[in-house]
Amino acid sequence: MGADVHKGEDRNGDRPSGGGDRLSGDAERLSGGGDAVPPGVAVPAGDAVPAGVDEPVADHEYLSLERELTFLLRRARANQGEMAREVHPDLESAAYGLLVRLEEYGRQRATELAAYIGVGKATMSRQLRALEDLGLIAREPDPADGRAWLVDLTDEGRRRVTHVREARRARYVTQLSHWDRREVAELARLLQQLNGVIGK
Q1: Looking at CB atoms within 10 Å, which of 7, 53, 79, 101 has the fewest?
Q2: With a cut of 50, which residues of the chain have pLDDT below it?
Q3: Which residues lie closer than 8 Å to 2 by C-beta, 6 or more apart?
Q4: What is the spatial order of strands in the sheet that 108-109 belongs to?
Q5: Which residues touch 58 (CB under 8 Å, ≥6 apart)?
Q6: Choices 3.40.50.720, 3.50.50.60, 3.40.50.10540, 1.10.10.10: CATH for 22-37+52-195
């Protein structure tokens, strides 16, 4: 999933309780609970909501989601950098996702990788050259299109990426051992659903 769950604890050091209401309970605690903003109380745009005063009911869930995603993405960026360095000390953080894509789907055109990562041809070419220099990928001409290149992991690249991903999977199993597997599956499903609409 990319983001790391820190030993089953939230930001306040509390272990989440079991049951399907875990995520909604955490959001309620983080938002402060209480009643909606009473009529006549102005909350300037972009300012934090005063202590003891809740957001308007209509926006409560979305503001809670925004807070959690901000925290999750910040942690995910840090974790991606750690995983990149575990693959190779000189590997750029942004290139880790590219290696995972190749590990999961096999050989692909450089243009397909650029579209997946969301970068231009020049940036992709620079990243691929760096990965070649590290011995993690190899490129060869596409027999179906002489202007295109096919990219795949080298044996060493595949070994390193697989090792890091397996170690991370084992950490998730340990850190989420108090979760029901159905909750894990539901979280993955919801994140996939969110990824399908966010940014559109």
Answers
A1: 7
A2: 1-47
A3: 76, 79, 80
A4: 108-109, 145-153, 137-142
A5: none
A6: 1.10.10.10
